[in-house]
Design a protein that fits this description.
heterodimer; A: alpha/beta; Rossmann fold; 2 domains; six-stranded parallel sheet; four-stranded parallel sheet; B: mainly alpha; ABC transporter involved in vitamin B12 uptake, BtuC; 13 helices; 77% helix
Chain lengths: 331, 326
């Protein structure tokens, strides 16, 4: 009797487990990718990455959506309708850090998993936040890009945005911390183009005049890198001075072709969309977003969360002559 | 009066020479002819815009929409170039001038027909034009690889050692010199700005004259719109953001009175060159970026102080004459 009872219990549990997994397989998970606004190349590319993740996972349906203009109100409407549709997870790139919190809390109360990516939501409005990269990774990447093309070392200069730009200042600070790893590379000047094409252009000209041995200009800003590349081309120094830093493929394609820039970096939106989807899927399947947790994200490895339940995806992605053609129409 | 203006230009020219001298002590190659040619080329757009602004300010108005006009026209020609790469550059140039003039005419007509204060009208069009750029471009950039080679090469084309951009600036200076000193319209700008009531009695239509000043300023801004976009090989919503203030500053430094009626082509050109030299020199002499702003600002205040003094003199003379008559 005892044995029989045990057997029956085990069998019941077994059947229950089988039934539940069968149900899970039959029911596809619906993950909503909410972007800042529809029609932006960067986010269209992220959606491609999400679809790639969905294909890999098999039982995921991606709902790519967002408002038509970059407003928090528009996103709130979109998220409300997603709550009504009872999606399994929402991955949002927010137009406002705080405005979305009440709506997203409501979503979490209904059991929907909520993560933010790219542009974050305040801690209480999401379970985790996926940063495309981290300040130390970016700081290291911008100097690495310059150093990789200077095997014998040389003088490099930084062309930043404004003197008060928090992002750029942090990246330059992080860059200075790792300078020891790049012997022979001297940062001879840091100038500020104020994120204006004309001022950045003049500053780049000034750098070339004041430092005749300059080998590279590092511009961790998308306006600055384009202006500096143009200034270098106009001075006839394309190929001699390498302009690098952070830029967008569509804006830099011409300057990669002219040789003024050998390579530059920016987060890869495809990887970002892919990782966001993978993370949302992991949460749906029971992963806990607690500080210190490591959550798998497919081919991108895993995301380690810090005390604010934020994590950094990867090094910024490097674009050069070999891949620029593929990306320049994306974003 | 003319003596005074001449002397003020002489002072400014001397100040520029001293400035170049000072810079040379810290960066010896600055005074080299090749470098000065570069500085002039860099300042060309500012010179042209300052000249357009000059006729507006002289007629006791102000055009704050120049930079937005420049950006909108720039975006329009860049979009045209992207959509129809076959359109030759001279045609685009004409379109740019005509389009800019049309935008200027909007300002002019509002000031003329509705008698609105120019600062309010152009502050409004400043934002409207920026908004229109967003509508045309959807906030997207037009990048170097989307423009044709000819489009980008035009301002860089080398003629007798100077770029075509510099030659255009020289031609604009000459045209404005003739306009201001040799044509009735040029004199009318001064009459309207110096004393609008008296101008009416001499048979000058004040509103119409001001409208023409805005159209001229707009046409120049349109031309500069193409040149800017071609030179920096990029067009986006924020190009030349805040540049209108630099243009007004160049005029003020050049001794053009914000109260109207006083100013000269030489003053506008020298004022623009002064700012251009400061802008080009500061990056090479290794001065903290925080000081750069302070130095540009100090130059403006000193120039205004000069102007205020000269204008006070003018007032006294009139009173003395009145006393004598009475």
């Amino acid at each position: 009797m005892g044995i029989l009872k045990k057997f029956v219990t085990a069998a019941t549990i077994g059947v229950a487990i089988l039934a539940s997994t069968a149900a899970a397989q039959a029911e596809t998970k619906r993950i909503a990718l909410v972007v800042k606004a529809l029609g932006i190349g960067f986010f269209e590319a992220a959606a491609k990455g999400a679809e790639e993740a969905a294909k890999e996972l098999g039982d995921v349906e991606i709902i790519y959506t967002g408002p038509t203009d970059t407003t928090a109100e528009g996103q709130i409407e979109v998220i409300n309708s997603l709550i009504a549709q009872k999606v399994d997870a929402i991955a949002v790139s927010a137009n406002d850090t705080d405005a979305l919190v009440p709506t997203l809390k409501k979503a979490m109360d209904r059991g929907i998993k909520v993560i933010s990516w790219d542009s974050g939501v305040a801690k209480e409005g999401r379970q985790l936040h996926l940063n495309p990269s981290s300040n130390p990774l970016i700081g290291n990447m911008i100097i690495k890009l310059a150093a990789d093309n200077l095997p014998d070392g040389g003088d490099v200069a930084v062309l930043s945005a404004t003197t008060t730009s928090t992002n750029q200042n942090t990246w330059i600070e992080e860059m200075n911390k790792v300078m020891g790893n790049y012997p022979g590379i001297n940062v001879v000047a840091t100038v500020y183009g104020d994120d204006k094409a004309d001022k950045s252009y003049t500053e780049a000209q000034g750098l070339m005049k004041a430092h005749p041995n300059l080998k590279a200009i590092i511009a961790p800003t998308s306006v600055g890198i384009v202006a500096a590349a143009q200034a270098v081309s106009d001075a006839g120094k394309a190929g001699e001075i390498n302009v690098t830093g952070l830029g967008l493929p569509s804006e830099m394609a011409g300057h990669i072709a002219s040789g003024a820039s050998k390579s530059f970096a920016i987060w890869n939106p495809i990887d970002l969309g892919y990782s966001a989807t993978m993370l949302a899927y992991s949460l749906i399947n029971g992963a806990e977003a607690t500080p210190g947790a490591e959550i798998p994200m497919g081919r991108m490895g895993s995301l380690t969360l810090n005390e604010d339940t934020e994590g950094a995806m990867a090094d910024p992605f490097v674009y050069d002559a070999s891949n620029i053609e593929a990306f320049k129409d994306i974003f | 009066m003319i003596q005074l203006l001449k002397s003020r230009e002489a002072i400014l020219a001397a100040a520029i020479l001293v400035l170049i001298g000072l810079i040379s002590t810290r960066y010896s190659d600055f005074a080299a002819p090749s470098n000065l040619i570069n500085v002039f080329n860099d300042t060309s757009i500012l010179i042209m815009l300052a000249l357009g602004q000059m006729v507006v300010i002289v007629s006791r108005c102000i055009d704050l929409s120049v930079a937005s006009n420049l950006a909108l026209t720039g975006m329009v020609v860049a979009t045209l170039n992207m959509m129809a790469p076959g359109v030759p550059v001279p045609v685009l140039l004409l379109i740019a001038v005509a389009f800019g003039a049309m935008l200027g005419a909007i300002n002019g007509v509002l000031v003329w027909k509705l008698d609105l204060p120019p600062i309010v009208v152009t502050l409004g069009t400043l934002t409207i034009f920026r908004g229109l750029i967003f509508l045309i471009s959807n906030g997207e950039w037009i990048n170097a690889h989307e423009m044709t080679a000819g489009f980008k090469a035009f301002p860089r084309y080398d003629v007798f050692g100077l770029s075509l951009l510099s030659w255009l600036a020289i031609a604009t200076i000459a045209a404005f010199f003739v306009l201001v000193t040799r044509t009735p319209l040029g004199r009318a700008f001064f009459a309207v700005g110096g004393n609008p009531h008296a101008a009416v009695y001499t048979g000058i239509d004040v509103g119409y004259t001001r409208c023409l000043a805005f159209i001229i300023s707009g046409a120049v801004a349109g031309l500069c719109g193409y040149l800017w976009v071609a030179r920096y090989a990029v067009a986006y919503v924020d190009i030349a953001g805040g540049f209108e203030l630099e243009v007004v500053a160049a005029c003020v430094i050049g001794g053009i009175s914000i109260a109207g009626g006083i100013g000269s082509v030489g003053g506008a050109v020298l004022g623009a060159l002064f700012l251009g030299i400061v802008k080009n020199a500061l990056p090479v002499v290794d001065i903290s970026p925080f000081w750069q702003l302070a130095i540009s600002g100090a130059a403006i205040i000193i120039a205004v102080a000069f102007n205020a003094r000269s204008e006070r003199k003018k007032g006294r003379i009139i009173l003395k004459q009145a006393e004598r008559l009475a």
